[in-house]
Specification:
By secondary structure, the protein is an alpha/beta fold. Helices cover 47% and strands 16% of the residues. The protein is built from ten helices and nine strands. This is DUF6933 domain-containing protein.
Length: 268
């Protein structure tokens, strides 16, 4: 289950009034604690979303609770939670595919299988109002880095390549939490969780993958996709966005059944 826990500023960003009616994706949290990892015997992908303004632009930061992996989104319109969900999904797929291909742990076909597994286990997002001090402290560090980068580079990311570069730079930062014995890199932890949950990685292979991953950052900047190669990387995510992920919250009276949506599309 995919859960976007929203700070107060993010909740305010996603809430708008149209024609006198308040519209918001927020609902009650499905599980008691933000760090819960299971719901009805299914894994939970829990994120904390925070909203700020940098250089008069809206900036959203989504951080994975367990791995502290963060993604930054710039220029979204207030209240457009559906577009946020779509961009979030596209970015996550793009970044995970990049790591999988560079580590030679998946190709386009096997990544497609992982995408299908992700959609099956996380059919539609739940937005709720809830925070966490530990995750927020790491988000605050990300905010500082975003503002620093904006000042140094003269602006914020304007396309997928620039956004992916910023994500990689932020997630290469060494972090620590009470649940991790040692310091860790969010990039590495997020990819290992991704390929373990949605791929077929054997637990015994994890140490070897860690060795491969730690050799990768030295090459990372030169390996990130050039504009002319983006079509290949984005292709599979575009299919998933168009056929499966509607980006609507999981309200009881507005549930999106992606399996049914797929069946309906095939029958058209």
């Amino acid at each position: 289950m995919l859960v976007f826990n929203c700070t107060r500023t993010a909740a305010d960003f996603f809430t708008v009034t149209r024609q006198g009616k308040k519209q918001s994706p927020l609902e009650q949290p499905p599980m008691p604690e933000i760090g819960d990892t299971q719901y009805e015997n299914l894994p939970i992908s829990s994120w904390l979303v925070h909203a700020i303004k940098v250089q008069r632009k809206h900036v959203l930061i989504a951080m994975h609770v367990s791995t502290r992996y963060a993604m930054v989104f710039v220029g979204l319109k207030k209240g457009d939670w559906a577009e946020f969900a779509r961009l979030w999904l596209e970015r996550l797929f793009n970044n995970m595919q990049f790591f999988g291909e560079q580590l030679e742990l998946c190709d386009e076909a096997s990544f497609h299988v992982m995408v299908e597994q992700f959609i099956r286990l996380n059919p539609n997002p739940c937005f709720c109002l809830r925070g966490d001090r530990s995750v927020q402290s790491h988000i605050n560090d990300v905010v500082w880095n975003i503002e620093y980068q904006a000042d140094e580079m003269g602006g914020l990311p304007e396309d997928l390549v620039q956004a992916s570069l910023l994500d990689e730079w932020i997630n290469h930062t060494v972090r620590s939490t009470k649940t991790h014995k040692d310091y860790f890199q969010p990039n590495e932890e997020m990819f290992l969780e991704w390929i373990t949950l949605y791929g077929d990685l054997d637990p015994g292979e994890v140490p070897q993958v860690r060795e491969y991953f730690r050799a990768l950052p030295m090459q990372m900047l030169s390996l990130l996709p050039e504009p002319e190669n983006q079509a290949k990387i984005q292709g599979i995510t575009e299919v998933a966005l168009q056929t499966n992920f509607e980006g609507e919250p999981a309200h009881a009276d507005n549930i999106i059944d992606f399996q049914q949506a797929r069946a309906n599309k095939k029958n058209k």
